[in-house]
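Try it yourself: sequence plus 6-O-phosphono-beta-D-glucopyranose, in.
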Amino acid sequence: MKQEFLWGAASSAYQIEGAYLEDGKGLSIWDVFANTPGNTKDNTNGNIACDFYHRLEEDVALMKECHLKCYRFSLSWTRILPNGRKEVNKQGIAYYQSLCKLLKEAGIEPIVTIYHWDLPQNLEDEYGGWLSEKIVDDFVHYAQVCFEALQDYVNYWIVINEPNIFTEHGYLRAVHPPKMKDMNAYLKSYHHTVIATAATVHLFKLYNYPGKIGTSLAYMPGKSMPQYDSAKNLYQITQLDWFFDPLFLGEYPKEAMEYYGQHLKDIDLYKHQQLMKSAAQEIDFIGVNYYQSTWVISAESGFELISNPSLPKTSYGWTIDPDGLMQTLTALHEKYHKPIMITENGYGGKDILINHMVHDDERIDYLREHIEMMEKAYKTGIDIIGYCCWSFTDLLSWLNGYEKRYGLVYIDFNDSALPRVRKDSFFWYKQLIIQGEKQ
Ligand code: BG6
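Structure, out:
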């Protein structure tokens, strides 16, 4: 990999910061949702989480020790704008400025995600959040406050994390706020994330802010037996291209419009086409989160996704498929011709702390195999600019609480001091980065 390759790790505000009511922060939909009994696994919430809010020095020192070249984190909208708009919370801005400063001093490039799912509750109450086009102006205003405040530190911006996942979970599957099961709401909310992203990218370029801007989506490539190729193709068009095309080509795939048909009522996919087209040109890179592939078979509805019978799984049943990463990178490169940053990739499991050590061999194997595949893809000429392992420390899993762990650093959530313990994967990743530095 190139000398300047961004080896790093990623996280998000709600999953690590805690301090949910401190220093002027307003409430997000996740603060309210997770504090309502029955909504999350074992009623877990991010009120304290990893207490990253109070431990910047300690955690950034660990990142430096691990030789990270970049750290991807998200901003909490309500820490910066407690009501979602207008009044700026200076303490929130100061907090993120000190995080960026610490990272820079440690030689670590901050990669900032503007939005990772924690919408201001106020905007949800006022007009239904992502269901209304009103969100676009509020989002762009928030993004500009972030650009103004952090432009001296940040060279890589990610507009929204996995809009394809949070809209599905929130509006179609009812497992995230606002707990809806409505196909039209799902498609509408997604469309509003597209417009908000396009308008933000356009503004970023218009004001000539320094650095590069991209956005991150989840990609789960489909595999199938040859007899199910048409099912796989339908999956590709309606579940992958549908989300990536409007952001990186500036238009939705026509075939998928037919598939969604009447569910698209009231959604004008063409109204902002000019903006979508120009933002698709302007956006600098694709952020992709890859964890697993899926197995596609045909079904009455066109296709069905099942667990791949021939591939190994994590203890949470996620398919382990490094080849799927190659498939992902190749598909994105060939279709969109933009540099790619792997903004998330990691292994979620139940780690055990024994004598202040965590032997997480499965995670090391997972990371090694995926990184080798990424390097192979890089050698074929795919422009990959960074790799962020998910995650640096253990953190709150939206659907699996504190039990499912992804970190290179273990956190003992049963101990109120929240001690940090370097896992075996921490030392392994550190060596990998050091070797890269020598090349
Ligand atoms: C991604 C999200 O979808 O997957 C992260 O961007 C999330 O925020 C990660 O934590 C892992 O998902 P889970 O459900 O296993 O915690």
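One thing you can check immediately is this: The chain has a mean pLDDT of 97.
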